Amino acid sequence: MLLPEITAFSVPAALERYADCARAMGVAEEGEGSQSAVARLLDELRRLNEISRFRHPAPGHRLPKRYESCCR
User: Fold this and answer.
1) pTM
2) I want to staple 28 with a disulfide (CB 3.0 to 4.6 A). Which of 11, 22, 54, 61 is the partner?
């Protein structure tokens, strides 16, 4: 999926929006700076991309509970 790359490309135009998304997803803390929050968001999107290539996560890898319902 291209979501991480598209997100990274559009960050300059919507930094605060993406930072809010990171906080809403629980990958960044409320008081964290926007640049740091967006970096965490991009890391999480890339990580989800990697594990979603399999119908079931590889042995020893589990989705965070907040994402389990989307992969059933």
Assistant:
1) 0.71
2) 22
What does the block give as tokens for 64? 């965070």
3-state secondary structure 10-30: HHHHCHHHHHHHHHHHCCCCC
Among the ranges given (1-5, 10-14, 22-26, 38-42), the one the predictor scored with the smallest mean pLDDT? 1-5
pLDDT, the chain, mean = 83
Tell me if 61 sits within 8 A of 51, measured CB to CB. yes
pLDDT at 11: 96
SS3 16: helix
CA–CA separation, 10 vs 13, rounded Å? 6
